[in-house]
Amino acid sequence: MKTKILITCFLLIGLHSNAQINLEHTFQGEVITINTQSRTIYYSYNGSTINFYNDDYSFYISTTITPPNGYKIWFFDNISDKLFNLDNNIEFTCTFQDTLNNSGFLLKLFNENGNELKHFGNSYYSYIHQTLNKKLRFLVVRYTNYPYNYVTDIYSLPGIPNNQAENISSDNLFAYPNPTKDNIFIKYKIDKSEITDLNIFNSNGVLIESKKIGGDFQQIKINLNRYKPGVYIYRYNNINGKFIVE
Q1: pTM for this structure?
Q2: Which site from 1, 76, 78, 114 is most exposed, i.e. has the minimal number of CB atoms within 10 Å?
Q3: Is 190 helix (H, G, I), strand (E, B) or coil?
């Protein structure tokens, strides 16, 4: 009887060892993936250049963005196609930081050929929102007097949502003050009996911190003393938002 049990255990171990994942490809450096409206894209960026790859890992296109005089590229965001317009090009926003006069940030929309499609002005923060009746809007927080006074411009979008639901921001999550230096409060809304993880990533997609959140409360305070200046993404249950550490 013991012999049969041992044989069964070895067979189960053998079956388990064969259930392995297979390495398909290795990119040099860190690569981020996103599902747009019509395809899967891998992309990476280094300085002013952003490289795009197809879902079969083949190279697609490399785009170099020249910052305005006195600015540097802060980060790329809102990678999409058929969202800001209905052509086949990839579009993305680029946030520039003023390094000369310390007057804040500029936000511009580009396509994969490096053509500027829209200048949103002295803006540092933007996100895509889908309403309950499926309308798409692009919200841009724009400074009228850096760094304190600002307005929010809302643009209609002609395209369709990304296939990746987490790319559509939700009002269930909100962070304040934003930008900030020391602490930030992140509001959330989950079922009273639910416990889940709130994860914080840097702009390269690296997990920086993870916190347990529960439905008994509606917000959490995060101490940012260990955070470097930059843009961070926070996420729970496929709902996400952004904040800036100055």
Answers
A1: 0.67
A2: 1
A3: coil
